[in-house]
Design goal:
2 copies of one chain form a homodimer.
Chain A (H helix, E strand, L loop, with lengths): L5 H17 L5 H8 L5 H13 L3 E2 L8 E2 L1 H11 L7 H12 L4 H16 L2 E5 L8 E8 L5 E7 L4 E6 L7 H15 L4 H14 L6 H14 L9 E4 L14 H12 L1 H11 L5 E4 L11 E10 L2 E11 L4 H22 L3
Antiparallel strand pairs in A: 1-2, 3-7, 3-10, 4-5, 5-6, 8-9, 9-10
The first copy, chain A, binds a DNA duplex (30 and 30 nucleotides) through helix 2 and helix 3.
DNA sequence: CCCTGGCACTCGGAAAGCCGGAGTGCTAAG
DNA sequence: CTTAGCACTCCGGCTTTCCGAGTGCCAGGG
């Protein structure tokens, strides 16, 4: 870790803040004026020279001002940034969203929209991979003589449904009974485990299985084999906000970025990393390790249900973003979401 | 309607096809070469001059070639275009999607992705506004003593669920009974009508209502009052495909367009229009009436369930798109979707 | 020793000028 | 009516010029 004189730190902070605000390389003169520094441009130039040696800033070319490097941003967020609570205006618009009492599921999905609206960047939310969550119960509901609605409820309150066409008609009471037997047999496992058990049970095809359980297993298998189970558990919104940033508006990069949003693969991996530790995490530029996120930063924070981390919320924007604002927004959103989910479930 | 000499029509067709393929203004010389015309560039210039007077083509500037106007595209699709069935390759990739037996709901949502993949443009799907579809049945499922999962099934196979927290605990049989009574009372109405009835029933608060129905009405009301009911019934995918087109890559237009995709309002109105009549509809450029879709065309086709139009599939791309290909893809997709939905439901 | 004013230097970006090419419109001849 | 020829236009790309912003360095002053 580099150590700078207090003056150099002050300067760097002012420079980065200025650059975040304006998006233009900032020169010694403007920096003196803007930050109200008590020394001259020449001095500033000397200090800048040092900062450049440390790799914290660089000049795009000889006679432009300086812009922060990724390392500069990193130093900035690590040691120069005092994260304040969100502006009251932001705060209220976030809280409003959580006041409306909704389904956990709907709430989670809406959070990405919330984040994008408040930060004017792209909001992302990663929900638990379906296969990983706990199985709570299954129910069969006859829609007609040939169609049965299978409802799968997970322990975290997600509901999955699918219509299947069983081989023979079942009466309502048969279905009821089948569900009861099934729930008894598979209570407490994770969805992935249930799926595995189902495959086993079908393969064994044992005669000793109750007839009714057999039916249930066959029908349930159709749900657990469905692609809904392996769906990428990621919501993105407000991608179009990123079009407003000139540093991203140039064709190829933008293209890559948007494809990353659609493919979701990379983002998912990134958010997985962020789930291992608590609190806000920040990936600046290449730190994320994904080419598509080259000149972007990602700010994430995990949220939890009953003390257990289950997902992540976050924001994607250009490296030149208002880290203090974004960090506080992401942080408070994750907290409120955790609260809303943990509050809503027990009781 | 303008009437052109066969030669002029041939020329126009060749010009538009060339322009769609290359995206560059096309001049007399290249046109002669490319289309293998048996007359000279000078003649072509004369004819082009006529076409320009008719407003079918225009030159971006004096010494560029000609590009089609919106009117030109319109004439092209109306009278010059022979819509062929999709290329076999497209066809198989479409059919593959429909082979996988899925939920109607999942199928519908996946179609926008399908369209965008096949056409390399943005795919859109409009599903019935929730409030308009017919009510089929409601069910209550106890998750815990304080949480009840309400499952709402519509006649077209959509399933809506929501967790509510009733005032007092209900036993499974009470819930069962409540659902039965409720289903009997509201069978056959549209969701909007059900909602209205519920509000009425709650307002009247009449003593003569069965106790169990009262409970059902109260719980159901929480579902019908939820925002899921009024959700914009529109799916968009593959927006990022549009970044590949140079004519759209210029900042502000693109921005508008993407905002239209997020806001959904305009697209929804447009698709509403397309639902009134059968078959493929094409909105070229300003024809749609929405500024955001300025240099875009929209190709749509309604799909039906049991002979009733219930939604629309479509594609959004630059006015310079391969209309023949896109039209046939949209058409066949709508047909297959109708087939899959109508096939799956009865039985 | 550090700060500061001064100065020469560099470089990018805008403006201006200069082709070359592609394409047109017109005209006159076949 | 078609076509070859020709003059003309205008865009795009290229170079040139110029200006301004900003730097680095140096020498003088606190």
């Amino acid at each position: 870790m580099v150590s700078l004189t207090p003056r150099a730190e002050r300067l760097l902070k002012a420079l980065i803040e200025q650059y975040i605000a304006e998006g233009q390389p900032v020169g010694s003169r403007t920096l003196v004026k803007q930050a109200g520094l008590e020394f001259s441009p020449a001095t500033v130039r000397n200090i800048m020279s040092d900062l450049e040696e440390f790799g914290l800033i660089r000049s795009p070319h000889t006679s432009a001002g300086r812009v922060p490097t990724e390392r500069g941003y990193r130093f900035f967020v690590n040691t120069l940034l005092a994260v304040k609570p969100p502006k009251t205006w932001d705060m209220t618009s976030i809280e409003d969203r959580f006041l409306a009492d909704q389904d956990p599921q709907q709430l989670i999905e809406s959070v990405s929209g919330l984040l994008s609206q408040v930060t004017k960047l792209a909001g992302i939310v990663r929900v638990p991979r379906r296969a990983d969550v706990g199985f709570l119960q299954l129910d069969f509901l006859a829609l007609s003589s040939t169609r049965v609605l299978v409802i799968l409820v997970t322990q975290d309150g997600q509901v999955l449904n699918r219509v299947i066409h069983p081989k023979r008609p079942y009466s309502a009471s048969e279905l009821q009974q089948a569900a009861n037997v099934f729930n008894g047999a598979y209570a407490g496992l994770s969805l992935a485990e249930v799926r595995r058990s189902l495959v086993d049970a079908l393969r064994r095809d044992s005669e000793d299985m109750q007839q009714i359980l057999r039916s249930a297993v066959e029908m349930a298998h159709q749900v657990f084999a469905g692609e809904a189970m392996s769906e990428a558990p990621l919501f993105v919104s407000g991608e179009s906000n990123l079009l407003a940033f000139p540093e991203l508006s140039n064709t190829e990069k933008l293209r890559r970025l948007f494809e990353a949003f659609t493919a979701k693969q990379d983002l998912l991996h990134l958010l997985d990393q962020s789930m291992v530790s608590q609190g806000v995490q920040i990936f600046i530029g290449a730190e994320s390790g994904y080419e598509a996120l080259e000149s972007c930063s990602v700010v994430t924070a995990p949220y939890e249900v009953d003390g257990q981390i289950v997902g992540t919320v976050g924001v994607v924007g250009p490296t030149r973003m208002s880290y203090d604002r974004v960090i506080s927004v992401v942080d408070v959103t994750a907290r409120l979401l955790s609260g809303a989910l943990s509050h809503g479930l027990p009781g």
